User: Which sequence fits this backbone?
């Protein structure tokens, strides 16, 4: 039964992926885009190993464990109608994946496994498969596939995974299929429903945007995989109906594809990389505000205190629960910006640093930040 499910699933997913990949090629994403050879290698190897090694191994292990722990539960729900089995499977699977994905942005060890996904310089169908192998080995989606198959929901698993891949690959692909809904006013009621029900290119591109300074992007939101209503429900939704112009990570050291895929077994040799050997985030909190005149426009204030550009964000908060604060400078003038992270009026200094008993700035920079 499990083998039959895997065969049908593989064929259908390959068909979906081929469709969106052809769209990427037609609009030029792969032959005149920003991807390096390392990006192409990572996406190709990541896709192949997921469907030929990681997923079959996880599903087989899930089936084995279920047989040992619940030997009498095999095919217990085999007769359940598809109209009940399918939504039940999808809701359990997708909700757990929402939280797994969200925690991948809040827990440092899990962020390092998910980080390759955000290192892509542009969106595309194969960008869907940019994660470390260990990230996929822990992915709830794969484990639920084996568990639900064992319980007799095999048909629901096949249909559910295909539907989910259509949405997820469609949200990553460079074809902005939702733009049609936004450009036609008479379709706006449909757009309102669609963008709140499933992930779309606009909502998921925003999750991959390089910086919230553009007023569109926010890697700390839009964590949903298939159903976007999880973000609505848990307060992490950002809906702008726009697409960021810059995708990727701030200060990306361009780690090699094999380090991305096989961390922590293989580590990057790139200096300052989060996945390099011995890397530790540092605190740049000081007891001296920065007085500077900023350009008119939007800026990001660092909340985590681990940015080398403190008090301004450089993306070091990834893998923590901290989130930078977006603020706008409307007139050029010198202002004092808080670097102690104690101000009650961020990003501006309110003299809270005078209550601090701290070592020198140089000594602070050598300390390891507690994430």
Assistant:
């Amino acid at each position: 039964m499990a083998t039959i499910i895997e065969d049908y699933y593989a064929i259908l997913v390959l068909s979906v992926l081929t469709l969106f990949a052809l769209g990427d090629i037609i609009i030029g994403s792969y032959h005149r885009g920003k991807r390096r050879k390392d990006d192409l290698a990572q996406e190709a190897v990541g896709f192949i190993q997921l469907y030929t090694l990681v997923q079959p191994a996880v599903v087989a292990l899930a089936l084995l464990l279920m047989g040992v722990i619940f030997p009498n539960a095999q095919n217990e729900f085999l007769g359940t109608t598809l109209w009940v089995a399918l939504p039940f499977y999808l809701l359990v699977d997708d909700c757990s994946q929402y939280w797994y994905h969200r925690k991948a942005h809040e827990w440092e060890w899990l962020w390092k496994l998910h980080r390759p996904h955000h290192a892509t310089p542009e969106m595309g169908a194969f960008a869907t498969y940019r994660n470390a192998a260990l990230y996929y080995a822990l992915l709830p989606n794969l484990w639920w596939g084996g568990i639900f198959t064992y319980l007799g929901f095999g048909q629901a698993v096949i249909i559910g995974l295909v539907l989910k891949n259509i949405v997820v690959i469609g949200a990553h692909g460079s074809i902005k299929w939702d733009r049609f809904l936004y450009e036609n006013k008479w379709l706006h009621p449909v757009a309102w429903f669609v963008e709140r029900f499933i992930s779309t290119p606009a909502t998921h591109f925003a999750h991959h945007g390089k910086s919230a300074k553009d007023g569109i992007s926010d890697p700390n939101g839009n964590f949903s995989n298939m159903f976007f209503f999880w973000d609505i429900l848990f307060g992490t939704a950002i809906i702008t109906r726009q697409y960021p112009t810059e995708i990727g990570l701030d200060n990306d050291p361009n780690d090699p594809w094999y380090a991305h895929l096989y961390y922590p077994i293989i580590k990057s040799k790139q200096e300052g990389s989060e996945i390099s050997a011995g890397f530790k985030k540092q605190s740049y909190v000081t007891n001296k505000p920065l007085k500077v005149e900023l350009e008119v426009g939007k800026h990001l204030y660092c909340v985590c205190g681990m940015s080398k550009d403190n008090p301004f964000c450089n993306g070091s908060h990834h893998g923590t629960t901290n989130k930078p604060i977006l603020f706008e400078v409307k007139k050029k003038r010198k202002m004092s910006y808080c670097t102690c992270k104690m101000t009650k009026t961020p990003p501006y200094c309110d003299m809270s640093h005078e209550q601090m008993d701290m070592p020198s700035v140089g000594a602070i920079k050598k300390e390891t930040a507690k994430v």
Remarks:
- The two ends are 45 Å apart (CA to CA).
- The first strand starts at residue 290 and ends at 293.
- The first helix runs from residue 2 to 26.
- DSSP finds 13 helices and four strands in the chain.
